[in-house]
User: Fold these one by one.
Assistant:
Number 1:
Amino acid sequence: MRNIEKRAFVCLLLALFLTAGLGFFCYRYVTQGGDWASYPFNRHMYNNQGQLISGAIYDRDGDALSECTDGKRTYYPDATVRKATLHAVGDPQGNIGTGALTAFADTLSGYNLVTGGYSPTGAGRDLTLTIDAYLNVTAYNAMAGRQGAVGVYNYKTGDILCMVSTPTYDPLNPPDLSESSEGYDGVYLNRFLSSAQVPGSIFKTVTLAAALEKMPDLENRTFTCTGETEVGGDVITCPKPHGEMDIKSALAKSCNGVFGQLAAELGASTMTEYVKKAGLTDRLSVDGILTAAGSYDLSGATQNQLGWSGIGQYKDTVNPCTMMTYMGAIANGGTAAVPRLIRSVETPMGGIPTAWKRTQETTTLIEPATAAKVAEMMKNDVVQTYGSDRFRGMDIGAKSGTAEVGGGKRPNAWFTGFLDDPDHPYAFIVLVENGGGGASVAGEIAATVLRACVDKF
Ligand SMILES: [Zn+2]
């Protein structure tokens, strides 16, 4: 009798394991089946060069960036277009993880839950991306060989119109990195989606949001900068004395002393709360591609280091795409569309979209009333400091950053902001690594790219 009980117990245990295992498999099958089917070892979906056989990739107005003809993958005929769209389209070898050929391989191959990787027409599905090849080329040319990223997106729909990461290369003529990686530093990395870097003064927009909400008298305060401001027993320096100013001018002059002092007054927990709320330490899902998380780490920080953290130095890092989304929320009353790269998915036969992508909204990244005030002050930055002439005809708000990166290297140049224009609701970000002055270097690239965006769309 005892033996039968024991066996029954063992059987029950085995049945439980089986059920749990089956449940786990079903869950993984539904969530990751597409990835399994498009793994390179599924030979029937790849040609003998290891290239995904099916599905074309178009830009938003129908330029074929990559197609598949007779089992061979082809690319756009112009090399500059190929380089400017490399990190969005991907490479045949699959080194660029954010490229559509890799990140959206399951969609391109026509995978679905019922038929798996088999497609009756053998042609997979075509993908229309949100990016515009012409805008990417404009941004790529404006970067002029420098290293960094450019992004522009529509904060109402989420469409990323321009996404360039440099250095880049021609996918038809890939560099041999084993020979020399000179000029190809982190070339497979999409800096826009997958890097987190020292932000410098563009981060003051976060400290400003916290101060506007937590310090009721902020807009009536007058600050004085002598070029050196004492915060927590040590100094925070400015490139020059900024004199007397209110908070609006402090942002336009980008006074480190003022924002360092504000961060120290706000305290570590309030600052951390606002950075988190702005989404800067989280990852965004851009059609399933997770952006790099930024960091805001104050563990063990002194009051003076807390001050530096409020001006985007100390240990701060941000991801360009996430920061751009925060800019979208400032312009859009507190929330913004989550950036996306897929505009539509089509079956190649009729060309009828089988799926249009819905717009997703972020959480509230900044309170609506605060967003309105920050937006006004960022518009004033352009009038007071950057020069409206550079952005003629645009209702633009912006903030520059010249972020010290240490190691004897030149600072990172940043320029980010938004257009307050119902016909062109765009947020943007430009990063030039070790590029020098944010307003001059990155600002110039932003002006060129935004001009192209407004003229074309
Ligand atoms: Zn100052």
Number 2:
Amino acid sequence: MASDTTVPVVIIGSGQAGLSVAYYLRRFELVPGRDFVIFDRGPDAGGAWQHRWEALRLGTAHRVNDLPGMKELGVSFDTADRSLPAREVVTDYYRRYEEHFDLKVVRPVTVRSVFNRRADLVVATTSPDYGDRETVARLIVNATGTWGAPFVPYYPGAQTFAGRHVHTAGYPSADEFAGQRVIVVGGGTSAIGFLLELEGAAAELTWAARRPIDWIHTEQLDLEGASAAVAMQDEAARTGRALPSIVSGTGVPVSRRISAGIERGILVARPMFTAIEPGGVRWDDGSFTPADAIIWASGFRPELRHLAPLKLREKAGGVSVGAGASWTDPRIFLAGYGPQASTIGASRAGRIIARQVMAQL
Ligand SMILES: Cc1cc2nc3c(=O)[nH]c(=O)nc-3n(C[C@H](O)[C@H](O)[C@H](O)COP(=O)(O)OP(=O)(O)OC[C@H]3O[C@@H](n4cnc5c(N)ncnc54)[C@H](O)[C@@H]3O)c2cc1C
């Protein structure tokens, strides 16, 4: 293993949250590559957006907020091309942002674990280009998002299913389900996007959701504007509980496209099935729907596995975080966690966390 490098701050992740923290640290005159380093395991800029499915466009349901300082580049997500895949636009803008502010993101580098060695905080990384290394840091800003921790709820018989289970994180495109009988699970905008896209391709389409859909009559949801949802997230984060679903606090905005889908009968959800069988799903009333694929748009969990040695997790299932700082270990910050888990929350996290980092250096 390569010998230790020491750096004051390690940022893990270069999505909206990690870039925003980096921007503010730089504004506080820290030098990228010397005073802080950013590791990211992705092959390119773009955070989780680079991995999203081809059909996803910017602003189909939620507003995507700009990164701090993005005006300097002369671009804004508000005026971005909505005919292009979101993954292309975001990757392009983030890449230009990294270059403009010379943030020196080191990729592809996967952080395998963060642990204590005597008084040191050690970040163990692995990379096809750089091999296995350890970096000693005074402070860690974890900005790893959720994309790497897809959540699929347990249903009896799931392993017996002869068809295909596909999670949002692995959703390719509607073409792959051409002529198939597809069940889409989930009550959020991803499930709705899949249903609308699959309508023209799948032979049969069924929508199942855990709770009735709470339609709200607005074109686009500003996630931060949904203050009840943010407050729920904040409360859970501060008390160390597992984070609730965002959708349970926001409802689903009814755009014109969605409204037309409801009228056509495509966007009508059934309460969840009770079991999965080799050929399909069984409902509460005993009826059966044959299926070739089940698409799980059932959400994500914060990706924190690599922090396990620090024992931040509370008995209540989450980590205790207030204003982006761990309440268990003051050297650890969690950017984009809980109430910051939207593009505007992640952007704001930058300023809040960078100030606290500076106070500790
Ligand atoms: C399908 C979907 C659509 C969404 N649409 C919107 C929207 O329209 N508007 C909105 O405001 N929000 C939206 N969100 C939420 C939004 O994506 C996030 O709030 C925001 O983009 C997340 O930024 P982030 O920096 O926290 O995480 P990410 O963008 O996930 O970035 C995390 C980064 O950390 C890296 N990483 C993870 N683990 C490691 C590791 N161990 N080692 C090294 N690197 C690591 C990853 O490679 C990644 O680059 C959406 C979420 C989903 C799932």
